[in-house]
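Field reference: sequence -> structure
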Amino acid sequence: MKKILSNIAITLCSALVITSCKKSEFGDAYRDPSKVTTSTVAKQFAGMIYTNREYVVPSYWNYFVVQRTSVNQYTQAVGWANAIGQYVPPSGGVNDRWSNYYNFLTQYRELQKIYNASTPTEQADNRIFMITAAIYFYDHTQKVIDLHGDIPWADAGKLSANGGDYSSSYAKYQGAESIYTTMLDDLKKFSDDLSTISVPAASLATFKTQDLINKGNLVLWQKYCNSLRLRMLTRVSAVASLTSRSNSEIAAILANPTKYPLSLVNDDNILLKVTDVASDINARGFQTGLEDWNGNIAGKRMIDHMKTNADPRLRALFEPGLNAAGVYNGLDQSLDATTQTTLINGGTISIYNRSTVSRNQFFPGVLITAAEVNFLLSEYYLKANNDALAKSTYEAGIKQSINFYYWVRTVSNDNTAGALTATSDAEINLYVAKPAIAWAGTNAVKLGLLANQKWLHYNVIEPIEGWAELRRLDLPALTYQVDNSSQQKQPPFRWVYPAQEISFNAANYAAVSGKDNLATKIFWDVN
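Structure field:
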């Protein structure tokens, strides 16, 4: 809770050199809120995005401490040697991710405070910063809710706004469904606003400089907003109180693509790109984050599916083991730990392709991809019994996913894995026509095809989205070794709250303590 209460304003380096500032320069820019006199809406906007960077662009701590022994294993995006207590989320990772989110939230609150204190004219000029900041903030709020459920939210991060009064700044928990509903309400308004907004030339020039995500491209922000709406509306589509809203709002988005554009092709992917690996926005920590302690091991289910069906992503995403004679093998999770460890040490198990993934210091932070959007649309059309559009968007999603990972390799500054043989439309079309891939069968079978493709696309790159979809759909149907040594015998349905939150926000935590266990499902998990 200390992190919720801390409310630090960030004053950043010159707007002209923001992407090349050194870490020490960013650190020097932080100030006590009571002493800040020079912060602006524009600088605070960039500071908010910067604060959250290591949970967007691949980093050491996020991959090694947070995801290595939690979501990456729950989705079987990796293989690992079975161990005692392997399904219990790591306390260090849970604590850190929670703290990072509330540091991020605090920066957002400071942005709101600065904006609210400005003149009506200044507010009108800076409206674009507030709309886009909220879109980005809601994206990451959704992820935290999908991990924990109810969280302190509407009243969190307001120590500065409350004049430093701690007693009035401890935040109550808010229901996850209530927060989702508020965000969906706001995102719809933002989408409407972005379709008509007129940004003064001077404000737009500043926005282009401070916008680390879309570099001031307002159309991409529209696509980000609507694609995020599509993701969230799909996630709650089976919740009785939200099903009608989900269907009607998605239909409205699709009925007016000019007003509500989506990210449908890879040129429209929403990414936090690395432009200088010497800057603080880089993927330098990806190597140790994924590779240390055998974190970079391929799972049998994923490798077998890709290998059997000649998936063009196989060679882009994975490498054969050093002693595998060029054969791709995944680690079988049904084996005992001793056998698994022997196999791992023997060098016959595949790993994620180091040049495409872990040693690619230019690997971007992924926020929304065209593949995801097309897969979400395919699910909507499938449920609406529009099979033709369900098929076309399903196939488009596959093609966008394949081409995305081949593009990622082109920006890599590493060649450890050797040259990557390019794919082609012919190879991709052959893959799409494979019996286990082709759009055919009952609606239940087709939903399974979609779930497999989402799972393959998310892999270790978007594991939180992958875990959310796995819980929501119960697909693909993965098999886990039962951990009889622990009370948690299978992967959990959520993360528990961190110990620091229980200690520092005890009174408010008491209201949700009854839900605070690994068996409580997130509200959208109704299967």
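Note: The radius of gyration is 23 Å.
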